């Protein structure tokens, strides 16, 4: 069944580059990238960062952009960067433990009391290099005020600076931070707007260059996906992730038929399949 010698045609060059599991290079979003970079840049001079709360609906590229800026900061400066996702570490002790692990603390045991975790963190951060911490899916975290306070204290009580980039799907007004926390942190906000048809087209086109073999994308394929998903986004459904999935599935539909090009009909089929699956 799977070992037939008949060579099957495929439209894909590198299917993996349509995957939404790995964060890829951001396409567009130059202004947002600049603003995130501006917020963390002082760390590279050993000065305090502007804490930043990045917010906007899911799939608008927040994580992609934050990770990209932090990767560059890591590559190009002495600043240490740590990125933690709250879906995985959504309590104060688990987050602080993970932060220690990311800062190369030798194997902290689970279940250490908070004050021991904080002391260990202070020791790590005091080693002289500033740290940029990205807290992704921040709205998922329990004890938000406490964690922000913990990180703020690292800034105050150590020689080094600790800058925070928070990402949230909720608007700042819907995140219930205490007034105390807000004023102490003095964070700035950056909103990621939803993508329109043109934005999606640009992203899909860029990703398609690596994903598909030359001349395998029929006329109007990317436009069709971008239009359909932009319409969904307008009514509060779908996002960029979904657009990439539809294009990916359309390619698979073409492969199923052994076709040499992906067509708009494959896109339609991919979208119908998605609807049934939802
Ligand atoms: N500007 C962009 N350039 C390239 N890919 C993007 C862009 N925006 C979103 N994506 C893709 O869409 C998916 C969702 O983006 P993500 O950054 O996780 O959004 P958010 O964090 O806002 O929910 C990612 O897998 C990424 O591949
Ligand atoms: Mg995200």
* List of distinct ligands in this structure: adenosine-5'-diphosphate, magnesium ion
Over all CA atoms, what is the radius of gyration? 22 Å
What name does the CATH topology of the largest domain carry? Rossmann fold
- Per CATH, the class of the largest domain reads Alpha Beta
CATH architecture label name of the largest domain: 3-Layer(aba) Sandwich
The total number of structural domains is 2
Give the helix tally: 10
Major beta sheet summary = 5 strands, parallel
CATH superfamily of the largest domain: P-loop containing nucleotide triphosphate hydrolases
Number of strands: 5
The order of strands across the largest sheet is 2-3-4-1-5
| Overall 3D shape | elongated
H/E element string?
A: HEHEHHEHEHEHHHH
Q: State the end-to-end distance.
A: 29 Å
Helix amount, in percent? 40-55%
Give unreliable regions as ranges.
none
Tell me the β content. 5-15%
Properties at a glance:
alpha/beta, 278 residues, five-stranded parallel sheet, 10 helices, Rossmann fold, Helicase, Ruva Protein, domain 3, 10% strand, Cdc6/Cdc18 family protein, ATP-binding, binds magnesium ion, AAA+_ATPase, 2 domains
Describe the fold and architecture.
It is built from ten helices and five strands; from the N terminus they run H-E-H-E-H-H-E-H-E-H-E-H-H-H-H. It is elongated. The protein folds into two domains: 30-191, Rossmann fold; 195-277, Helicase, Ruva Protein, domain 3, CATH 1.10.8. The protein is of the alpha/beta class. The mean pLDDT is 90. It binds adenosine-5'-diphosphate (ADP) and magnesium ion. Adenosine-5'-diphosphate is lined by residues 20, 23-24, 26-29, 58-64, 203, 240-241. Adenosine-5'-diphosphate binds next to helix 2 and helix 9. Residues 48-191 form the AAA+ ATPase domain. Keywords: ATP-binding, DNA replication, Nucleotide-binding. One of its GO terms (biological process) is DNA replication.
């Amino acid at each position: 069944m799977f070992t037939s010698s008949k060579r099957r045609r495929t439209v894909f060059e590198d299917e993996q580059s349509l995957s939404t599991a790995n964060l890829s290079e951001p396409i567009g979003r130059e202004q947002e990238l600049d603003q995130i970079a501006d917020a963390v840049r002082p760390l590279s001079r050993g000065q305090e960062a502007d804490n930043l709360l990045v917010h906007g609906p899911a799939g608008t590229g927040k994580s992609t952009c934050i990770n990209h800026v932090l990767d560059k900061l890591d590559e190009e400066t002495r600043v240490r960067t740590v990125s933690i996702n709250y879906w995985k570490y959504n309590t104060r002790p688990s987050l602080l433990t993970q932060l220690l692990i990311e800062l190369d603390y030798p194997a902290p045991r689970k279940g250490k009391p908070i004050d021991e975790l904080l002391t260990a963190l202070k020791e790590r951060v005091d080693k002289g290099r500033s740290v940029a911490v990205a807290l992704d899916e921040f709205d998922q975290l329990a004890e938000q005020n406490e964690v922000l306070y913990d990180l703020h204290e690292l800034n105050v009580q150590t020689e080094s600076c600790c800058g925070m980039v928070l990402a949230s799907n909720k608007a700042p007004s819907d995140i219930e931070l205490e007034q105390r926390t807000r004023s102490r942190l003095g964070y700035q906000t950056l909103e990621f707007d939803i993508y329109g048809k043109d934005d999606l087209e640009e992203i899909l086109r860029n990703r398609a260059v690596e994903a598909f073999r030359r001349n395998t994308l029929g006329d109007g394929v990317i436009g069709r996906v971008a239009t359909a998903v932009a319409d969904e986004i307008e009514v509060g459904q779908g996002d960029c992730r979904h657009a990439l999935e539809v294009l990916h599935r359309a390619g698979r539909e073409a492969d199923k038929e052994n076709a040499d090009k992906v067509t708009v009909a494959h896109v339609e089929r991919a979208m119908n399949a998605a609807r049934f699956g939802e």
